[in-house]
Amino acid sequence: MLLHRLLLPVGAALFLAVTACTAPPKQAAQLPIMGERDVRPRADGGPADTVFATVPRFRLTDQARQVITNQTFAGRAYVADFFFATCPGICPKMQGELLKVYTKFAADKRVVFLSHTIDPAHDTIPVLRDYAQRLGITDASRWHFATTGAHGEPTAKDTVFQLARAYFTAALPDKQAPGGFAHNGTFALVDDQGHIRGLYDSLNPKEVARLIEELPILLAEIDSRKAVAGK
Amino acid sequence: MTVFSMPFRHLLPGLLLLLLLPGCFSNNRHQGEKLYAKNCAGCHGDQGQGLARLIPPLAGSDFLADHRAQLPCLLRNGQNEVIVVNGVGYHNIMPGNKALTSAQMTNLLNFIESHWGNEAAPRTIRDVQQQLDACPAPGAAQ
């Protein structure tokens, strides 16, 4: 009798513990939206609108001399990072990791890749084209290697550093750092509306694996948005 | 202090000595591997695989065998020339490392040259030091 009294709660606890581990979450997973949000009261007194941060307006030129703006990625997801061609620090590792992600999604036109150079003075269009080809990227429309200084703009460096901040990447000139620039290797995942939906440390293999897992979640969300709009 | 009652008390100094013992040995085991991970793997890869046509591989690299005597100087001074490795031309900046001692460089090169299909004879610190002493001045044509 005493044994029975003990067994029942223990059994129940075990059952709960096991189901807690295996039961899938009921709600479909959705990626968070990064950055500040703004709540704007509505004039008609209805529920306030929440305005989420978006990537600022940009105008770049890629290795195929194509102009790249926010509109280039409209309706699609993209993964962005910041590098420079002669970077002896973390870039080869970072770009090697992004190459792995790219290879997985190379055939999926719903996602595009965008690498910004933070050394526009050195990384001219021919340098970017050579870099892309050496990495094995033949189609510039799938993976853009882009500069803010295609026409020698004196502000190119400031522009790209500002852009990097918007993508939560720290990038700044640093004489002490290998190659003359200090930056971290963040991958930013951006949705079809310009919201940043994920940030991943390229130097951590677990984070890169998380990007590969989370990308399809975002693609499904974009698909469902398109399906609703199409109705 | 009942734990260290009479019979154990004379063991204490011995135990203390045992605790201090590891300090007598240097931690140079696997130094080459550690130096590789810290200084080289970022570009050349965890397995010396390189990166596409941007960064040359060290794994199974003919360049290592063909330029064995120049490698210490290459590590110290870096380079910015086109180099051909296993038939592929690479042109990227390799930074030099002035901080590595000849002993560290020997361990590093011995690690690289005995992994990933590389099978060179081990180097001695003396050889490496002699090769370093004979390095051309940085920037001079090699």
Tell me what the CATH architecture of chain A is: 3-Layer(aba) Sandwich
Instruction: Please state the structural category of chain B.
Output: mainly alpha
Give the structural class of chain A: alpha+beta
Mean pLDDT of chain B: 88
Number of domains of chain A: 1
Number of domains of chain B: 1
User: Which value, in Å, is the CA radius of gyration of chain A?
Assistant: 22 Å
Q: How would a crystallographer describe the biggest sheet of chain B? A: 2 strands, antiparallel
Query: What proportion strand of chain B?
Result: under 5%
Outline the low-pLDDT stretches of chain B.
none
Shape of chain A: globular
CATH H-level homologous superfamily name of chain A:
Glutaredoxin
- Enter the CATH topology name of chain B: Cytochrome Bc1 Complex, Chain D, domain 2
As an assembly, this protein is heterodimer
Describe the protein's architecture and organization:
The complex is a heterodimer of chains A (about 230) and B (about 140). Chain A contains 5 helices and 11 strands; from the N terminus they run αβββββαβαβαββββα. By secondary structure, chain A is of the alpha+beta class. The model of chain A has no long low-confidence stretch (mean pLDDT about 90). Chain B is about 40% helix and about 5% strand. Chain B has helices spanning about 5-10, 10-20, 30-40, 40-45, 60-65, 70-75, 100-110, 125-135, and strands at about 85, 90. A two-stranded antiparallel ribbon of chain B has the order 1-2. In chain B, helix 7 (about 100-110) crosses helix 8. The mean pLDDT of chain B is about 90. The interface between A and B is medium-sized, with 16 and 13 residues.
Structural key phrases:
heterodimer; A: 231 residues; alpha+beta; Glutaredoxin; five-stranded mixed beta sheet; globular; B: 142 residues; Cytochrome Bc1 Complex, Chain D, domain 2; two-stranded antiparallel ribbon
